[in-house]
Amino acid sequence: MNIGEAAARSGVSAKMVRHYESLGLLPAVARTDAGYRQYGEREVHTLRFIRRARDLGFSMAEIAGLLALWQKPDRASGDVKRIAEAHIADLDRRIDEMTAMKRTLETLVHCCHGDHRPDCPILDGLAEAGGPPQA
Amino acid sequence: MNIGEAAARSGVSAKMVRHYESLGLLPAVARTDAGYRQYGEREVHTLRFIRRARDLGFSMAEIAGLLALWQKPDRASGDVKRIAEAHIADLDRRIDEMTAMKRTLETLVHCCHGDHRPDCPILDGLAEAGGPPQA
DNA sequence: GCTTGACCTTGCCATCATGGGAAGGTCGAC
DNA sequence: GTCGACCTTCCCATGATGGCAAGGTCAAGC
C-alpha cells in the first residue's frame, strides 16, 4: 500500500505520515525500486493511534511516549496513566485560562452599548486596567 | 526613554516592542543619533493596551483592529463589540474542544488501574476507537 | 510506443507569538 | 580607557500543519 492509501485509511495526511516518520514516531518503512514507501496494516494501525492521540490534544512528545509504551509488552499501566493525567492537568490549566479571559471579556462586552457612538467600556478596560504585571 | 524602560513600564519585552513596530501596531518612533528608539508616555500607553489585549487572548490581527478603533475618535462602539464577541465565540469553541478531550481522557483514566501491570484501557482506547474520521 | 493524469519523491516557505543568540555599536560610571 | 549594561539588526527555533514547486513513476487508454 502506498502512502496515499495508508493516509486515507488512517485519517492522517500523507504529508503528516512523512513528518511522523522524520520525527521517528513511525519506523522508516520499505521502499519500492522507485522509492515509494510501502505500508502494511501494522503501520496504518500505528497511524490511527497517533491520530487519536492528536485528537485528544497530546503533543508529539507525549505521543512518542505513549507509542513506546504501547509497543512495550512489559509496560506498567501506571506510566501510561501518569502521562494521561499530566495531560488532563494541562488541559485544565488552559481551560481555566481561557475561561478567565472569557469572563473578563463578557463583563466588558456587557457594559458596551455596541452602537454608533464612540464611547466604549471595552476599549476603556483595555486602556486603563493597571500597569505592568509585577510593578 | 529607551526601549528597555518602555518595555519594563509596559510589561512587554523589548524584543516584542520591536516586533510590534515591524508589524505596524506601534508607530516607528524617533531615534537618537546613535539609532536608539526614543519612547514617551504615549507609546507606553499603547504598549500596555497591546499587552492587555494579548492577555485576553486576542490575535495580533484583532489587536490591530482594536488599536485602530481606539485611536479613532469617531469610532462606533458596535465595531469594538463585534470584535470582542467574535473572540468570545472563539474562546468558547476552544474551551468546548478541550473540555471534550478532557472528558474522554478522564473516562479512560478512570478505567485504568495505573499499576505495574501492562493492561491499560487508555492504550486500548487509543488503539481501538474506530477508523478514519469520514470513512 | 506515447500521452495523460494521478500519484509519489524531496525540499522550501508560511503560519503565530515569542525567545535565544550572535555580532557589533553606544553610553555612563569609574 | 575600560567595563558592564544597554542598544542595533539579523537569523534561527518553537509545534503541527498546509501549500507549492520541480521532478520521477505508474497505469490506463489510444
From TrEMBL, chains A, B:
SMART domains tied to this protein: HTH_MERR
InterPro entries according to UniProt: CueR (IPR011789), DNA-bd_dom_put_sf (IPR009061), MerR-type_HTH_dom (IPR000551), MerR_fam (IPR047057), Tscrpt_reg_MerR_DNA-bd (IPR015358)
Name of the protein in question: Copper efflux regulator
Alphabetical GO biological process terms: positive regulation of DNA-templated transcription
Sorted UniProt keywords: Cytoplasm, DNA-binding, Transcription, Transcription regulation
Stored Pfam families: MerR, MerR-DNA-bind
Subcellular location(s) per record: Cytoplasm
